[in-house]
Amino acid sequence: MGRRGENIRKRGDGRWEARVIKGYDSRQRAIYHSVYGKTYSEVKKKKNLWLESQFTERTIQPQDYHSQIQITFQEICTEWLEFKRPQIKESSYAHYVHIVRKHLLPELGTQYFSSITTANLNQFLQTKLWGTEDCQSNLAPKTVSDIRTVLIQIIEHAKNHKYPSAVTEKLFFPKIKQPNIRVLSKEEQQLLEDYIFQEQSPFIIGILLALYGGLRIGEVCSLKWIDIHPENGLVHISKTLIRIQETSSELEDSPKTKLLLAEPKTENATRIIPLPRFITEFIKKFRQCPDIYVITGTTFWMEPRTCLDKYKQILKKAGVDDYNFHALRHTFATRCIETGFDVKSLSEILGHANVNITLQRYVHPSIESKRRQMDKLESLFARDQNKGQNKGQK
After folding, report:
1. What is the mean pLDDT of the chain?
2. Strand partners, 237
3. Bridge partners for 212 per DSSP
4. Angle at 293 between CA 290 and CA 294, to 5 degrees
5. Are 34 and 69 in contact (CB under 8 A)?
6. Packing angle, helices 73-84 and 141-160, rounded to 10
7. Are residues 309 and 240 in the same domain?
8. 219 and 329: one domain?
9. What CATH code is carried by the domain that includes residue 277?
10. What pLDDT is attached to residue 135?
11. What does the DSSP assignment read for 20-61?
């Protein structure tokens, strides 16, 4: 059986077949090209090579120019997604498909690509950001920025492959403000720890690993005991569990979602984390077979949504205010900085590409930490006071 969404299938004669869109007929229906192979890997490789050859060698012949002008934005999107799919992870592809389906096609899909201008797209993006008098359902700047990024890639794809385009200037860029991230106070952290250290459920290990290792919720849910080495106090992060939208080769509505156990989004997110000794000593008593998921104690994972619900229940029982799960990661980073942690080491533990990301996004000094820094000015004041007294004595 073929893998869903890739247009690759195993035929009755034993061969594998991959289909790709090579054009459209007079009624704008897709025309497919097929390649064949003895194995799934072979036919996928042939498919990707064929796509690359088509996209790099395409030129517009004079007699085809009229049809190129009449190609719709949706057709460009379909071609771009087909081109991107073999190059990116499934989660990234699902994100692109979601943006195209939900935001781009409803307003731009039926328009001829050649008739869409920079002004059209800027108005589209600004409406998404600020809404209109009739519709106040404006989107977050980060969402609009993601839409803009996809638009730019689609436009560049079209230009590189010789489609006429009226987009000649840079698109509107929404100013993105860093969200106001909440961090557990030391008192709240103590309340939470007092509660979970009395618990016997394996689920609380996930909270401890986020609070003392900076793990994300998807990383916690995907963790197996084979990834934890209590003897040397190390945790190996190599997977994440995420929920993505189902995708297909067409752009019809697809509201269904599925869980995906995948590699982390970036290369840096695959990492080894050393844990504090008291954490490794505590979790030793929960250790099970290598194939057992850590927070369930079974061979079945717990999806992030369920994990979040259980975490919120524990916060309530511990007498702690409501926080999202990611606040544990922020709290870990903040406590590390407060105790004089080396920022480069912290950045690697968190799985960041550079220390700037760590400092800008995850470090939130407490008011106590800020006060300690301000108190350092006392020494300057005292020094100036002494200088004044010495001058007066002379």
Report:
1. 83
2. 271
3. none
4. 95
5. no
6. 90
7. yes
8. yes
9. 1.10.443.10
10. 61
11. EEEEE-TT--EEEEEEEESSHHHHHHHHHHHHHHHHHH----
Side chain identity at residue 29, one-letter code: R
pLDDT digits (tens, 9 = 90+) for 272-306: 999 999 999 999 989 999 999 999 999 999 999 99
pTM score, two decimals?
0.72
Chain segment 230-240, per-residue pLDDT in tens: 888 999 999 99
Residue 18 · residue 44 · CB < 8 Å: yes
Please tell me the predicted confidence (pLDDT) of residue 5: 42
For residues 319 and 219, state if they share a domain. yes
Are residues 316 and 252 part of one domain? yes
Question: CA triplet 318, 200, 326: central angle to 5 degrees?
Answer: 50
CATH code of the domain containing 151: 1.10.150
Query: Which helix (H) or strand (E) element contains residue 391?
Result: helix 377-393
Each residue's pLDDT tens digit, 64-100? 544 566 789 999 999 999 889 888 888 889 999 999 9
Q: Answer yes or no: do 264 and 309 share one domain.
A: yes
Residues 251 and 274 in one domain: yes
Tally of domains in the chain: 3
Residue 167 domain-assigned (yes or no): yes
Q: Please state at what angle helix 304-318 crosses helix 186-196, rounded to 10 degrees.
A: 100
Q: What is the pLDDT of residue 52?
A: 64
Domain that holds residue 27: 1-57
